[in-house]
Amino acid sequence: MKRFVILVTMAMVMALFTLPAFAGDSTAVKQHQYVGAKKCMMCHKKDNTYPTWEITKHAKAWESLKPEDQKNEKCVACHSTGKDATGALLIGIQCEVCHGPGADYMKMNIMKDKKLAMGNGLLMPDEKTCKKCHNENVPEQFRSKEAFDFAKMKAKGIHAIASATEIKTEVKPTEAKPTEGK
Ligand code: HEC
Ligand code: HEC
Ligand code: HEC
Ligand code: HEC
Questions:
Q1: What is the value of pTM for the model shown?
Q2: Helices (H), the chain
Q3: Confidence band, pLDDT 50/70/90 cuts, at residue 132
């Protein structure tokens, strides 16, 4: 009987430690749905973020994979965005990889209020966001020889930053011309 009580207690203690962790993970995944970059385009064409993102390597990251690699989960994880509510895979590195799944923050009244938007899943990315992919897990033959430099890589190509003073209009961050300007 004593042993039984001890076992039950142990099980309960273990449950206490493991449950919150699992619960936390599953809500984080379920809470917000991906919608795809086309949905962001409606409003983010004018500020030039969508058009300047569209010409980056991120937007074309899926096309870099050979057909057989598009079936390799390892490659897919870093060359795609996630699945939308219908279960369709959103290919390439879209807005929501960096800014969080948008279903709950993309409404105009929410988007206009940054605090509210962030409460509904909007993320403002930093270096850590990039390093989820720009790290030593990139297959060696594709990995950049240089250490990841956030400021440099941000300037090289995510999209135009409208609020940056030095950038005015129609800035094209990267058009796959790595030798230009060197
Ligand atoms: C219905 C229109 C609309 C849609 C759709 C929309 N946005 Fe926005 N977004 C806005 C407006 C308006 C602002 C505020 C701009 C401002 O204040 O200058 C904004 C601001 C932002 C900001 C900057 C936040 C800040 O204030 O610094 C980010 C990042 C952003 N949106 C990302 C996205 C992403 C990603 C999507 C797609 C999932 C998306 N938006 C869809 C209208 C929209
Ligand atoms: C989900 C994974 C992922 C995240 C997160 C990510 N990237 Fe990337 N990035 C890639 C992939 C994959 C490529 C290569 C795309 C290709 O050429 O097919 C790439 C390429 C780039 C390039 C082009 C490199 C070149 O040599 O021309 C730049 C610049 C870049 N990323 C900057 C960033 C920055 C800055 C962040 C964070 C704000 C970031 N990335 C976050 C996956 C990611
Ligand atoms: C940990 C995330 C990650 C994984 C896993 C990953 N990649 Fe990438 N891949 C990247 C990043 C980031 C870059 C850009 C490297 C850079 O510019 O520093 C890249 C670049 C590439 C490029 C070069 C594209 C170009 O424009 O030159 C190819 C091709 C590629 N990856 C194929 C693959 C294949 C095939 C796999 C699976 C075997 C794979 N990747 C797995 C993140 C990843
Ligand atoms: C690779 C990561 C990445 C992707 C993909 C990305 N962004 Fe961003 N975005 C950033 C970062 C980093 C910032 C903050 C830049 C800063 O203020 O230094 C930012 C800032 C913004 C802002 C605020 C701009 C400003 O003027 O302050 C808007 C709006 C925005 N992004 C919209 C989008 C939309 C729409 C897409 C898709 C078409 C997108 N982003 C794709 C990383 C990304």
A1: 0.86
A2: 2-31, 37-44, 49-54, 73-79, 95-99, 108-111, 114-119, 127-131, 150-157
A3: very high
